[in-house]
Amino acid sequence: MRAKVGVLISGRGSNMEALIRAAEAPDCPFEIALVVSNKPEAAGLDKARAAGVTALAIDGKPFGKDREAHEKAIDAALRAAGCEYVALAGYMRILTPWLVEAWAGRMINIHPSLLPKYPGLDTHGRALAAGDVEAGCTVHLVTSGVDEGPILGQARAPILPGDDEAALTARVLAEEHKLFAKCLADLVRG
């Protein structure tokens, strides 16, 4: 029996698509049971539906500043779908301690830097500005601190002469698509 995974997105969902593709392999220990976006216009919702995955928008706006109430609605949807794990795939909201604790040890995130370097936003711009020779991505367990959870895996990508943010983003994203599914499978397998 494969573990059911819920994926949270906010945008185009390319990492979500990579997880859906990985789950098609017969030996994959997980299946994508649900995709949830906090943004009803997220392109990833249509991509998930096109792949046969249930996808919901649970807009944060009607909840105003009550982030925990929004997360309780997301949590209820995840549990109703039988999810055992949660993957944050470009989910652009900082989670409250309530949701983090509810899924402790079972929620992972993909981040586009070699943590602990460059947590938060604008990772590629900061790597280029610093003159780094490599960049990469990190999969980590989600904890209350932003991008501070235990690291499950990293992949490196060179920064080439003449790189701009778009070129570096594309190179790192290709690594993200491989690393995220591997780390999720390893977590599910124990």
UniProtKB/TrEMBL annotation:
Residues reported in the UniProt entry to bind N(1)-(5-phospho-beta-D-ribosyl)glycinamide: G13, S14, N15
Protein purpose: Catalyzes the transfer of a formyl group from 10-formyltetrahydrofolate to 5-phospho-ribosyl-glycinamide (GAR), producing 5-phospho-ribosyl-N-formylglycinamide (FGAR) and tetrahydrofolate.
Record gene name: purN
The entry's keywords: Purine biosynthesis, Transferase
Gene3D superfamilies: Formyl transferase, N-terminal domain
Protein EC: 2.1.2.2
Protein name: Phosphoribosylglycinamide formyltransferase
Pathway: Purine metabolism; IMP biosynthesis via de novo pathway; N(2)-formyl-N(1)-(5-phospho-D-ribosyl)glycinamide from N(1)-(5-phospho-D-ribosyl)glycinamide (10-formyl THF route): step 1/1
Protein's organism: Caulobacter ginsengisoli
Marked site (Raises pKa of active site His) residue numbers: D147
Pfam (any one): Formyl_trans_N
Domain Formyl transferase N-terminal, chain residue ranges per copy: 4-182
Reaction it catalyzes: N(1)-(5-phospho-beta-D-ribosyl)glycinamide + (6R)-10-formyltetrahydrofolate = N(2)-formyl-N(1)-(5-phospho-beta-D-ribosyl)glycinamide + (6S)-5,6,7,8-tetrahydrofolate + H(+)
CDD domains: FMT_core_GART (cd08645)
Record lineage: Bacteria, Pseudomonadati, Pseudomonadota, Alphaproteobacteria, Caulobacterales
